[in-house]
Amino acid sequence: MNFSAPADTAHAATPAFAAALDSVGMRHIDVIFTLADHPDSVLSAKADISVNLPRSDKTGIHMSRLYQHLYQWTQAEPVSPATLHALLNTLLYSQQECGSSSAAVRLRSQLLLHRPALKTEDLAGCKAYPLELEACLDGDKLSVSLNLDIGYSSTCPCSATLSRQLLSEQFCRQFAAQPVVDTRHISQWLLQHASLATPHSQRSTARLNVDINPAHDNFGVVQLIDLAEHALATPLQTAVKRADEQEFARLNGANLMFVEDAARRLHAALKPHYPAFSINVAHHESLHPHDAVASVSHNR
């Protein structure tokens, strides 16, 4: 007895409701890949992949082809703007019968980097930087972007002013009756009372979205991280000793910033290097049960 292969239901049937679809695909696919910026590091990721379905007479796309091409692509060579372009072209070619003219892919992962201590030589630790790589090909128009999360510390300028005011008032009460005060006494008093009131600071997050030139051979992830951390001046630390913690405290005191200040610092740092970007900053308040946020974008 001969058995015929089962019919491809998604392509043999006629859809009950005829309509073109902007996007069809899969989300949260588990993949591993190497990044052109760091070809020796294997990253795990969640991938989203899709094409449009302009033909209203087609029940569905060839979904399995998307998966197979994605898997083969991640195994073949490091991910770069150029290889993303090649993947999107392959996806469109695989859906010729559906008339697909646009394709998109997104990779969500994190890059683990060794970061040195602020002061102590030969002391370092690992820090993860969440990132997303996105690419979209619509006809002949290709767009590639990088989303990156940067963690840092922020100390409130208003809180610092109030703390200094309390310290000043206490100092005046302590020494007002003395016409001359020995600097040694002042130094000792400060060691005991300078933390009478402390400014509040909090862990903060900046999400950067930058357009990447599709002709570039990598995404410049580390360059963007270094640019942002230098602009903010108070990046989160990994391994520390007392000298590093003290330096971190000094940097926070020297770089007091509201959420608006952080957004503007990053805008000034990115503007000379990226033609288009957006910045979203959140200070996860220690004073309040809510976040302070700010955003800014730029298009040259």
UniProtKB/TrEMBL annotation:
Keywords assigned by UniProt, alphabetized: Hydrolase
Presence of the UniProt keyword Metal-binding in the record: no
Record keyword Phosphoprotein present: no
GO molecular function, one term: GTP cyclohydrolase I activity
Stored InterPro entries: GTP_cyclohydrolase_FolE2/MptA
PANTHER family the UniProt entry points to: GTP CYCLOHYDROLASE MPTA (PTHR36445)
Stated name of the protein: GTP cyclohydrolase I FolE2
Organism of derivation: Rheinheimera lutimaris
